[in-house]
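Chapter summary example.
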Amino acid sequence: MALILETEKTGEVAVIRCQGRVVVGEEARSLQLELERRESETKYIVLQLAEVNFIDSGGLGVLVRHFGILRNAGCDLKLCQLSPAVLRALQVTNLISVFHTYASEKEAIDAFSERSRFPQDAFEPAAPRVVCIDTSKDLLAYLSALLKRSGYQALTTSYPSDAITLLGKRGVLIVGPGMQANRLALERFTQIGPKVQLLMLPSDFSTAEASQAGLDLIDRLRPLLQIPH
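The structure predicted for these 229 residues follows.
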């Protein structure tokens, strides 16, 4: 089912109601364009997600990235009426505490008039260090938030030279599908040093169901850094 978006202004708040699938491709692009359109009109946006029946990693990346964009611009994004699919994805990936979530549109709208603080530690770096590289900004946003909420210091880039600098001589480099076709970059990564391990994301990572993709990644990453449950 294609993603259907309906936007309604309530005072200074734009409420975007989503119905269908939030997935990589036309659906994610349409949501991104709608968010960008509303960001130019107001500082306050609510996403109503009651009828979203599927969200993949790329779709969740769109939400995470635009949440960061709004915060950096002094604006805010709140989520409400989370569908079971969205709630599971946020809970399993530990991103539920990154967003402000509410049971109803009214609660989300009313919350803009309250002086609520964003959790200060939500994006604070933590050891050990993991560097992520890919060509997709949405995927990198998703990886960054997922890893930080799982207790890692996550750094992201789209440039091979920057990835090598950020990683240093020790750690894990997560290589996204968009970067894996760059054979020259992959060769450089394998030459960094014996204490650097590469973790290659599967080609369908961005289109996989977000919660399962997140679980699988953390399960693969943990033994590489010898992090206990």
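To summarize the output: The beta strands are 4-10, 13-22, 44-55, 76-80, 100-102, 129-133, 153-157, 171-175, 196-200.
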